[in-house]
């Protein structure tokens, strides 16, 4: 089943929020999900300890560079989706995860710092493609955007991505209180009280549209060559 990794070489780009939104949306559809929490902050692992975690979401936080590839291989055989939340740096864990991913989502806020962090991941993907000898499908997700205003910095990032021909999701992840509350109170958006959370309906719509775009890219042409190569070698 598809392996979807979230990566940006700069921390704070919205990787963990994007990964959790996708995981909870997929789980709400009845699919089994395994999340690898490779972020040192372990926000998703903390979320998993809160009430309301769907029973069809497993979270794995014990990860090493040597074990990760085989762990992902095992999880992809038993889960409908495998989601990997990577740390904001470049290291062997990140490289190993990207090389076995069917889709890499690169979250970028509307800032030049995030764009540079995303560019590092794009460069790393290009290098890995030469090593693994197949394309690694990837796209950019704009995160923490303002629903009402497009800033000059965000416009500049969008123009830079367009010039480079980078695939950018049409649905940006809007800054919403409901997304922050997931990490405070647990569960998914479906568990939140619309009377207590502002614009919950809009948050749910935004998350559903974002997830639909990601899943469409992940299943159109999943790359399984890495699976076959690793299986023969193991």
UniProtKB/TrEMBL annotation:
InterPro entries: DNA_Partitioning_ATPase, P-loop_NTPase, VirC1. Transmembrane segments: none annotated. Pfam families: VirC1. This is ParA family protein. It comes from the Bacteria.
């Amino acid at each position: 089943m598809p392996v979807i990794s979230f990566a940006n070489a700069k921390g704070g780009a919205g990787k963990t929020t994007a990964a959790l939104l996708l995981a909870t949306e997929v789980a709400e559809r009845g699919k089994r999900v395994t999340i690898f929490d490779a972020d040192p902050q372990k926000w998703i692992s903390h979320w998993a300890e809160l009430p309301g975690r769907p029973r069809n979401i497993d979270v794995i936080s014990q990860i090493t560079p040597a074990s990760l590839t085989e762990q992902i291989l095992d999880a992809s055989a038993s889960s409908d989706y495998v989601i990997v939340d990577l740390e904001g740096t470049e290291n062997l864990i990140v490289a190993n995860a990207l090389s076995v991913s069917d889709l890499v989502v690169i979250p970028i806020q509307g800032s030049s710092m995030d764009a540079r962090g995303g560019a590092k991941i794009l460069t790393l993907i290009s290098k890995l493609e030469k090593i693994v000898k197949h394309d690694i499908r990837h796209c950019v997700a704009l995160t923490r955007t303002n629903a009402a205003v497009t800033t000059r910095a965000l416009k500049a990032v969008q123009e830079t991505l367009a010039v480079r021909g980078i695939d950018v999701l049409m649905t940006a992840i809007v800054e919403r209180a409901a997304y922050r509350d997931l990490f405070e109170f647990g569960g998914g958006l479906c568990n939140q009280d619309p009377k207590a959370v502002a614009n919950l309906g809009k948050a749910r719509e935004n998350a559903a549209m974002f997830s639909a775009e990601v899943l469409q890219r992940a299943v159109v042409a999943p790359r399984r060559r890495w699976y076959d190569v690793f299986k023969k070698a193991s």
